[in-house]
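Folding Task

Wanted — backbone structure
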Amino acid sequence: MDAAILQDLRGSRPRSALSDAVSQLIPAAEFRKLLVSHRRMVRVDRREDRLKGLQDLDTGEVFLTDERGLMEGARG
């Protein structure tokens, strides 16, 4: 079984390519579940908006969450 494929795409994909994908803002708990799922994912963070992102390589969907919510969940 393969774990989710994570790749940090620091500037390797133009912003316009991300805006074409179907994006949805999800809660931090759901984002963490996707992070460890068996879906093929790549990182697509939007640093200027303080959003962490995952893009499903099979469907093209982009899942975004506020990075501050991820940190709050780790503390509690």
User: Anything to note?
Assistant: The beta strands are 23-25, 41-43, 51-56, 62-66. Residues 67-75 form the longest helix (9 residues). The chain has three helices and four strands. Confidence is low (pLDDT under 50) at residues 1-12.
